[in-house]
Amino acid sequence: MASSMKMLLSISLVLSLVSVVQSNSKPITVALNAKWNSTPLLLEASEYIAKESPESFWRYVGEIAKLDPKATALETDEGNYHMILKFAGKVISPSQVKLLQLSLSLRIYSPAVETFQQLAGEGPDDCIAFVNIHGQTTCDPAEVKSLVEKAADLPKPPVFKFDHTFPGSADNGIVVVLYAEVGNEGFPEFHKQLREMAEKKEITYILRHFVKEPAEEKTRLSGYGVELAIKSTEYKAKDDTKVESGDEADAEDDGEDEVQGFIFSKLRELHPDNKDDLKAFKNHLVASSTELAALKVWQLQDLSLQAGQHLMSTHESEVLSVLTDVSQNFPQRARTLVKTVLTEEFKKELKKNQQYFETNHALSAGDSAMFLNGLPVDMEVYDIYSLLELMRSETNLMEGLYSLGFKGPEVNQILRLDLSSDSENFALDFRHKAVSYLNDLETDRKYKNWPSSVQDILRPTFPGMLRHVAKNFFHMVFVVDPMEKNSRELLKMAEAFLVHSAPVRIGIVLVVDPDREVTGYDDPGVAMSRAFDYLMREESADRAISFITDVYEKAQSKELTADMVVKEFSRSYSDAEEGTVFGEDEDYNILRKAGNDFVSKSGLKDLPQVLMNGVPMDKKHLTEEAFEEGVVSSIIAHTPAIQKAVYQGTLHDFVNVQEWLMERDNVLPRLNSRVLSPEKKSLDFTVRLEAGVYDDVDKFRNLNSKAMTSVMTQNMKYLTRKDEDMLRPVTMWVVCDLETPEGRDLLYSALKQLKHTHDMRLGVIFNSRPWKSDDKYTISKAVYTALTTLEPGIAKSFITKLVKEENVHALLAGEKKIEDFEVNGMDTMAYLLAAEVQNIDFIKVHRAFVEQVLGWEETARGVLANGQILGPLDEGERFIQEDVDLFQKFVTQNSAKKIKSLLQMLGHKDDKGSDLVMKVSSLLSLSGSTKERKEVQYAGDQHSVIKLMATPGAPAYQVEVIIDPASRDAQKLSAILMVLKEVANVDIKIYLNCKDKLSELPVITFYRYVLEPTINFKVDGSYSDGPVAKFIDMPAKSLLTLGMNPSESWLVEAVRAPYDLDNILLEETTSGINADFDLEYLLLEGHCSDSTTGQPPRGLQFTLGRNQTEHAVDTIVMANLGYFQLKANPGIWFLKLREGRSRDLYNIANHEFTDTPAGSEDVVVVMNSFKSKIIRIKVAKKPEKSDEQLLVDDEERGIWESISSTLTGDKKEEENDKTLNIFSLASGHMYERLMRIMMMSVLKNTKSKVKFWFLKNYLSPSFKDFIPKMAQEYDFEFELVQYKWPRWLNQQKEKQRIMWGYKILFLDVLFPLDVKKIIFVDADQIVRTDLQELNDLDLGGAPYGYTPFCSSRTEMDGFRFWKSGYWASHLAGRKYHISALYVVDLKKFRRIAAGDRLRGQYQGLSQDPNSLSNLDQDLPNNMIHQVAIKSLPQEWLWCETWCSNESKAKAKTIDLCNNPQTKEPKLKAALRIVPEWKNYDYEIKILWDKVYNTNTRSQIEYDPPDIQTESVGSKIKKDEL
Fold it and tell me: Is the Cβ–Cβ distance between 282 and 262 less than 8 Å?
C-alpha cells in the first residue's frame, strides 16, 4: 500500500512537472495586414448598410449626422463601436446586425472605404470635408450655391455604380460630390445643405468617404488560413521521436519502451503491482506529448472512422470545438484517436449513408460538401466573404417569410420550392408573310437524300450531334435590322448554316425604316430590304442572302451607305431595272412593310432576335463566337418535345410540322420582350405597418419604401372576374394616369384580360400630375370611388365602361353623365354620393408611392404582377391585352403556380392567401431565389450524424455538412461552423463521411483559420491588436514549413519573419516565432477574346494604371481561356492595351463586368472588394492590320517585333539583346543562401550585363531586403516576378510541387515580351563559365534546351527510372533531361504556344496524384514529341550523383543533386565537391555583416578563406550600411 501511494505521489509530481513544461510551449503566430491604413468602422458599417438598400444607407447617415462630432470623438473605441451597432439596429434587422458584426471583424468593406479615399486624394489643405462641383472645390458650405450656379457649362464628373447618390436627386442636374467622414466634423453642415438642395431637384448629391487624418496602423485582416506542414522530403533527417501511441494491447507489448525519459520496462520491474497505473501514466504522457508519434500501418486503417466515433461520443456543446481541434491538430491527435473503439451501429449507418451520398450527391468516402438552406456551398470556390454574402441574402429571405407569418418547417418548405421553370418557354407564332424562308428541308433538292420520315427523329445519335431529317422540325427565324452591327454577323451565320446544310429551316425578317417617303436611294437598310425582296422573288433565296453578305464583305468595317448597296446590286444584276427596285415603286416594298408589321404585332423589341421554333434565343448566344453553340443547344432542347409527340403519334408524316408547332399551348400571338426579359426589380412586402397612415398624406410621405409598400398593400382594392372569396395566384397593379388616353388604354387592356381569367385580381395605382384643383381628376376620382364602394365584380364592369375612350370623351364633353354608365346590381345613388365627397388625397398618396418606391415620373405607366415591376413604359409604347396575358402567364409559370399549390396545402385558400402568394412571390423574386436547393439524402442520422439545434422561435439557417473529420476540408469548415454558430441562429447537421482502410496519415498539416465573430477590445476600451493565427504546443523536434492559404484573389507576402518560415524547428528557438504578412495586392483576373475569330489573342498585352496615361502593371494574355491577371489595390483603375504592337494591331471592342461610368470610353475597373474580380474583354483587330500577327519571328520581320514595355526604339532593343537574363527561385533561408552563391558564380564568370529574375512568391523578407544591396555591390539588375496560380489550373498542395510548377508552367507570362531568351539556373548550382555562351547557343528550332541526365556513373543505374518501363517506351530512344539548367527561346516558346500546350497537358496529367512525380522535369520530357527539347552538350551540367568524376573537369556548371544512396546534406556536399563554393559564401557573408552590422562569419562550417574584406561593400551607399 505504501509502495502504491508512493508511486501515485510520484506520478502526481511528474504530472505537475509535465504541465509546467507544457505551459512553456513556444507559440507560432502569424498576422496579416492590408497595405492601406485602417479605415473607420463607422464608414465600413455604412457600406454594409448600403448593400441592403440606398434608402437604409441615407437613413443611417442622417441619424449619424444628428450627433455631435466632438462628443463622439471623446468616446472610446468600444463606445463608438456600440454606437455604430445601435444606430445600425434602427435601419437593419437584429440578424443583419449580427452579420454586420462579423463583417466588421473581417473588415469586409475596408477596400470600399479605401476606394473612396483614393478617389478623394489628399483633398484641399486644412479641409476636414469638401465638395467638388464639376471640378470646382470648396471647404465652405456657404460657397456651394454660387459654385452650383457656375457649374452648368463645366464638364460633369464621372459617377460610378458604387457611388452613394441621394434618393430623389435631380437626374440630369449639377453633380455635387461631398468628400467627408460621416460622423466627423464638417459633415453635418454640408449634408444638411446638400440634402435640401437635392430634395428640391436642384442638384445630384453624391457622398464619398474621405478621412482627412487616417489611422496610423494598417488594416488587420482575417478570413484566411495558415498551415504548418510537416516537412516531407525524399532526403529528410531521421525523426527524433519514435514514440508510439497506446492501443488495445498490453503496455508490455508496446514497441517503444521510453516515453519522455521514463523507461517503463524498468518501472514495471520496480513496481509490478502498479501495472495499471503505469499504463495509465504512460498513456497520459503519450497523449500530452507535443512530439509526433510514428504509427503502425494497422493503426492508420481506421483513423478517420475513429475520429468520427470520437466526435459522436462528445457532448453537443463541445463537439464543434473538438472537431476543430482534431482536424486542425490531426498529426498530434492521431495518437489518442487510435484508442477509440468503433461501434457496429456507427460503422453500419456510416456505410449506408455513404451509399446515399454517392448516389444522390456524387460524393465518395472522404469527400466534403456544405449546404446553406439547401444551396450548395463549394468551399474550394467560396471564401468567407462569398459565404457571408450568401447568408445576407438568405437572411432577408428567411426574415421576410418569418414576417409574413411562416414559421419553422413552413419556411423551409417555401425556401426549397424549385422556381426554375420546368415548363416550355413561351413561343411566338411566326406564321407571317414577313418571314422569307431560305430553304425547305421537305422539298428542296439538296436534302432529297436525307431520311424523310418523322420517325427518324427517334434515331439514337451521339451526344451533341444533330439528326439530319428532311422534315422542318426546327425553324430558325432571324429578325434583324441589316444595318445593325450584330445583325451583320448573324446574317453571315445564317448563310453559313444554309451552305453547310444544317438540319434547320432558316427564315429572315428584315426590319428597316418604315417611312414610305424613304427610298432605297436614301437609306442603306431600305436598299437592302428592297434588293432582298427583289432577289427572293425574281432570283432565288441563295442569291438573296448571298447579296446581303457580299455587300457586308465589300464594306468591311466601313459605314454602309445606300450608294454601296445600289452599286453592288447594279454590278451583280445589271439586267434588273434599278429604279423599280430602289425607287418609290411599291412592287419590291412588300417585305419592308411586312417586316415592320410583324415586329409591331409580335411585340419583339431590342433587335436582333433569333427565334427557334418561335422561342427567342438567349441574347448571350447572339454573338459570332457563341451563336453556333447556342443554336445546337437550342435544337437539342427542343428535340425531346418533338420526339415525344412522334412517339405518341400526335405528330406523324401526314401532319404539317410547322402547323403542329404553332398550335401548341406555349405558342402565343405576341411575345413582348419587356415581359420575357424583365429587370430584376420587385416590391418588398416584408414590413407590416398600421393601415391607417394611408389617410394622412404628410405622415405617408415620411415613411420609408417598405412601410409605404405595406400601407398601400393593406389599402389596395381589387377588381376580380367574380366576387367569390378565393385564392388567386396573380395580383396585378396597374400604374397609370387615368386623366390621359395612354393611362386609360393600359387599364382597359388589363380589364379586358380580367374578363378571361379567374386567376387574377387587379388593383390600380393613380399616377397623375399634381394639379391643384380637385375638378381636374374626374376619371381618377370616379374609378377610385368605384373601387372603394362597389363589389369587385360590379366595379370591374362599371370601370370597364368608364375608361373606354369614347365614353371618356362623351363624359368630359358633357354629353353623358357618370350615372349613364350604371351596370346591373350597382347602387348608383350611394356611389354618386361617395364620388361627390371624394377628395384627391388618395392621388397624393399614390403619387408619393410611385415617386419614392418605384422612382417614376408623373404620368409614367407600368404594371406590377405579384410585386414584380414592369416599367415605366416608353412614351408611345402600348401594353395591350395580349401583353397582360403574357405577363400573367409568365408570373404564373415562374413562381405563382407553385407557390399557390404549396400555400393551399398549408391551408391558405381565401383572399388572404392571394396576398400571401403575391408577397412570397415578390420576396423570392427579390432574392433571385431560383437556384436549385438540395436536401441531403441519408439512410440514418442516429449514430453518425451530429445535430446542433437552432434557438426556436426565430428564423434559422439550415446548415448541412457532409465531412470527413480527418481531412483538409474539415480544418477550414470546422472553424467556419464555430463562428456561424456564434453569430447566427443556425441549425447544423454534420453527416460524417469517414474514409476507411487508410494506408497513410490522412492529414499531415496543422492548420488555423483566422476568423473572429466580432471585434475585440482591450480593458481600456481601445481596439485589440486584431486577429492572428496562433499555433501552440507544436512539435519542437519536427521540421515544419509555414504556408499561407488566403482567398483566391489575394497576393500576400512575408514582410517580417526573423526565422526561416520554410524550415521551422522550434527546439532551436528561444521563445517561439512571430511572422507578419502583408496583403500586397488584390488580383484582377480576366478573359480576353478576339471579337472576329472568338479565339484568345495570344501574346496581347494589357496595362493597368491609376489614370488614363500612367500604367503601373502589365500582363500577357494566355491562349488557355484567354486568361490574364493583373495586380491592383483598392481604387479606380484604367485598363488599356499596351503601347507598341498590341495597340498598333488591336482596339478594345467590348468589355463586361467592368465599372466604366456612363458616357466614358475608357475601360474602368474598380477594386473595392476582397472578393475576386473577373472581367471579360473583347478586342478587334484594326482593318488595316487584319493580316498581321501579334507574335512574329525574326525571319518574318527582320527584327522580332514583340510587345515591349513602351514604344521602344532600336537602342532599347539592342540593350535588351546584350543583357543576359537569369531566372531562379528559392524558398527557405538555406536555398536563398545557395541562390546568392549561384548568383556570385554567374557574376564572377560572365562578362555580359546580367539581370536576375526571381520568383517573388516565396522569398523571405531578408532576401528581398538584401538583394538591392548586393545589386549595388556587384553591378547587376534584378526584378521580382510574381504570378498567382490560376484558379482554373489544377492546384498543387505541397509547396515544393507548387514551386516546381512555377519553373515550367508560366514561362510565357512571367517575363515581359522584350525578354527574348531566359536561362533558368537552379539555386543550388555553381556556374564555372560565361553563360553568354549558353544564351547564344543555336537551339535548332526548339523552344528550349535542357541537359540530359548523365549516364557515366554506372553504380547509379538502379536509380535511372527513365531507362525502363513507361519512360523508356515514351521517350522512344530520346534522352530524359534534367531541369536544373535550361535555356528558353521565349519568342519561339510563345509563338508555338508551348506554354499553353504544357498547361493543357499538365491539367490532364495532374488529375492523377501519382503522375508527374518530378513535375518540373517530367512535364517537358512527357511533352517532348509535341514541344521539342534541344539536348545541350553534357558538360553544361555536371552532377556527382549521375556523372563520373572524370567528366567533372569539363563541367561548365555543377549542380548539387540529391544523392539517393548517401542522402548527403547540401552544404556538406557543396564544401566537398566545389572548392570555390566557400569563397563565394564567405564573400557574401562579409557583405551581409557590413550591411546589417552582424557577425554571420562566426557561424561558418569551414575554415575562413583568404579574402580581402576591405574592398567588399565599397560600392554600397554609406547610409545603407
Answer: yes
For 1239-1275, letters b (16+ CB in 10 Å) and e give bbbbbebbeeebbbbbbbbbbbbbbbebbebbbbbbe
Structure pTM?
0.84
Closest CA to 375 of 399, 392, 352, 358: 392
Q: Which three cell numbers stand for residue 1415?
A: 513535375
**Cis omega (within 30 of 0) for bond into 608:** yes
Helix (H, G, I), strand (E, B) or coil at 719: strand
- The 8-class DSSP code of residue 851 comes to I
Q: What is the pLDDT of residue 1521?
A: 58
Owner of C-alpha cell 447572339: 622
Identify each DSSP E strand in 798-885 by its residue range: 862-865, 868-870
**Which residues contact residue 1496 at a Cβ distance below 8 angstroms, ignoring those fewer than 6 apart?**
1485, 1488, 1489
Rounded-to-integer distance, Cα 510 and Cα 1512, Å: 81
What pLDDT does 152 receive? 86
**Which backbone phi and psi does 494 adopt, to 5 degrees?**
-60, -45
Residues 108 and 388: beta-carbon distance below 8 Å:
yes
**Beta-carbon-side half-sphere exposure of residue 370 (alpha carbons within 13 Å):** 21
Q: What is the mean pLDDT of residues 1499-1521?
A: 77
Give the Cβ contact number of residue 656 at 10 Å: 12
Vertex 91: Cα angle to 86 and 96 (nearest 5) = 80
Q: 188-192 — which CB contacts under 8 Å span 24+ positions?
A: 188/65, 188/66, 188/69, 189/141, 190/129, 190/131, 190/141, 190/144, 191/61, 191/62, 191/65, 192/65
Q: What is the pLDDT of residues 812-827, one digit of tens each?
A: 888 888 888 888 888 8
Query: Residue for cell digits 439530319?
Result: 468
Average pLDDT, the chain: 86
1204 band by pLDDT with thresholds 50, 70 and 90: very low
The angle at the Cα of 807, spanning 804 to 810, to the nearest 5 degrees, equals 150
Q: According to DSSP H, which parts of 500-589 are helical?
A: 524-538, 541-555, 562-572, 578-582
Alpha helices in 253-318 (DSSP H): 264-270, 275-288, 297-300, 303-312
Amino acid 1364: pLDDT? 81
At residue 705, what are phi and psi to the nearest 5 degrees?
-60, -45
pLDDT digits (tens, 9 = 90+) for 1222-1276: 999 999 899 999 999 999 999 999 999 999 999 998 899 999 999 999 999 999 9
Write the CB contacts of 1462 (distance below 8 Å, at least 6 apart in sequence). none
Q: What gap in Å lies between CA 685 and CA 710, rounded to an integer?
A: 6
Q: What does the alpha-carbon distance between residue 322 and residue 1006 come to, in Å, rounded to a whole number? A: 15
Query: Is the preceding peptide bond at 640 cis, omega within 30 degrees of 0?
Result: no
CB 180 within 8 A of CB 210: yes
Region 1134-1143: mean pLDDT is: 90
Q: Which class for 975: exposed (0-12), middle (13-18), buried (19 or more C-beta within 10 A)?
A: buried
Q: What is the DSSP letter of 666?
A: T
Whether 321 and 974 have beta carbons less than 8 Å apart is answered as: no
Residue 169 pLDDT exceeds 90: no
- Short-list 270, 239, 273, CA closest to 256: 239
2: Cβ contacts below 8 Å, ≥ 6 apart: none
Encode pLDDT of 1092-1112 as tens digits. 777 889 889 999 988 766 777
At 1202, the pLDDT band (50, 70, 90 cuts) reads: very low
Using the 8-state DSSP alphabet, how is residue 219 labeled? E
> Rg of the chain over CA atoms, in angstroms?
38
Strand partners, 580: none
pLDDT tens track for 249-296: 333 334 445 555 567 777 777 788 777 777 777 666 655 567 777 788
The C-alpha atoms of residue 1002 and residue 864 are separated, in whole angstroms, by: 57
